[in-house]
Amino acid sequence: MAKARIPTHIGIIPDGNRRWANGRGLAREEGYAHGIEPGLHLFEECRRIGIPEASIYGFTQDNTRRPSAQSRAFRAACVAFANEVSRRGAALLVVGDPESAQFPEELRCFLTRQGDGMKVNLLVNYGWEWDLAGLADGGLKSAAVSRIDLVVRWGGGRRLSGFLPVQSVYADIYVRDEYWPDYQPDQFGSALAWFGEQDRTLGG
C-alpha cells in the first residue's frame, strides 16, 4: 500500500466483548478482559505501520447503566490497557467526563496527554453530549483529538454509537463482523486496504 494512503488517524470501536463471552459459556463481563490484548496488538501494528494517532472506545456514559459487574469489568479493562499502552511508549490521552464516580481514579493522570510517542486517545466515560457541551465554553471537550480518517468497528454494528462525532464527520467506516476478542492482524490489514481504495474528496 502506498504510504500516502495510510490514515493519519484511525478510530477503533471494539464491540462484541459480551457476545464473545456469552458464546463461550462465560459471564458476559468476562469478555472485557479478553479485549485488552487485541488492543495492544493493534497499537503495535499501528506503530509499526506508522499511523500517528488512534482513538479507541473504552466505555461510554450510556454503558455505565449496565449491571455493576459489567461496569467494574470494563473500567478495570480500561485501566489495564491504559497502563500497559503507556508503558509501551504511547502518548496517552484519556477523554471522558471525570466528574462521575464511574471515571476510574487511576486514569486521572492521563486527562492531559502523557508521553511523546504515537498518540493514543482512550475514551473513558465518554458521551457525545458531554463533549459537545464544551462548545458553550469555547471548544469541544475533545479538542485535543484530531480529525479521524478511518473508523473500524468490530462486532458487526453499522453505527458510530456516538464515537467522536465531530472528528468522525468525514471518516470512512469499515465494519468487521468478528467480535473484538477474536481480533486478528489480517482484519486490520483488510481495513487499511479498503481505505486505500476510497475516493477521499472530503466533500470537494
Automatic annotation (TrEMBL):
Belongs to the UPP synthase family. Z-FPP synthase subfamily. Transmembrane segments: none annotated. Gene3D superfamilies: Decaprenyl diphosphate synthase-like. The keyword Transferase applies. SUPFAM superfamilies: Undecaprenyl diphosphate synthase (SSF64005). One of its GO terms (molecular function) is ditrans,polycis-polyprenyl diphosphate synthase [(2E,6E)-farnesyl diphosphate specific] activity. This is Undecaprenyl diphosphate synthase family protein. It comes from the Bacteria. It holds the Pfam family Prenyltransf. PANTHER family: DEHYDRODOLICHYL DIPHOSPHATE SYNTHASE COMPLEX SUBUNIT DHDDS, DEHYDRODOLICHYL DIPHOSPHATE SYNTHASE FAMILY MEMBER. Keywords: Transferase. One of its GO terms (biological process) is polyprenol biosynthetic process. CDD domains: Cis_IPPS.
